[in-house]
Design goal:
The protein is mainly alpha-helical. The chain contains four helices and no strands. α3 runs antiparallel to α4. The two termini are 26 Å apart.
Length: 139
């Protein structure tokens, strides 16, 4: 029981920190919001989000924790960005912000879990291969 509570607390903390970092990168990357290009959005947005999802998934103790960490971090990023972003916010442009937030939330609950599970599986498989000695078989 104690271990489960600890894992849940660590997962919540990791997701929160990762979500805050993702939101900060997104807001900082857009600057004043006037000179955002596709290239800058890719470099300051999509790549860091992918890196955050990969890192939190790769370091998770279980597949469930990998998915929870990744999804929660991205949902927090979406909330943070559309609350404090330079261009579109819930306060300034509520309809547009809500539209984009829903679209990104759909990605966070469909594509992100797949990426998290894939990353977790690859890391787990690599660890198994690295720890398996010659002539030793794992069940």
């Amino acid at each position: 029981m104690k271990r489960g509570v600890q894992r849940a607390a660590v997962t919540a903390a990791v997701a929160s920190v990762a979500g805050a970092l993702s939101a900060w990168i997104a807001v900082a990357g857009d600057g004043d919001g006037r000179s955002v290009t596709e290239a800058s959005r890719f470099a300051s947005g999509y790549l860091p989000y992918a890196a955050v999802v990969l890192v939190v998934s790769a370091t998770a103790p279980t597949a469930v924790h990998a998915v929870l960490r990744a999804v929660l971090s991205q949902l927090l990023m979406i909330w943070g960005y559309y609350t404090w972003g330079p261009m579109i916010t819930f306060e300034r442009t509520p309809t547009q912000a809500a539209h984009y937030a829903r679209a990104w939330a759909a990605v966070a609950v469909t594509a992100v879990p797949v990426a998290a599970l894939g990353t977790y599986g690859l890391v787990r498989g690599a660890r198994r291969l690295a720890t398996a000695g010659p002539g030793r078989t794992d069940p």
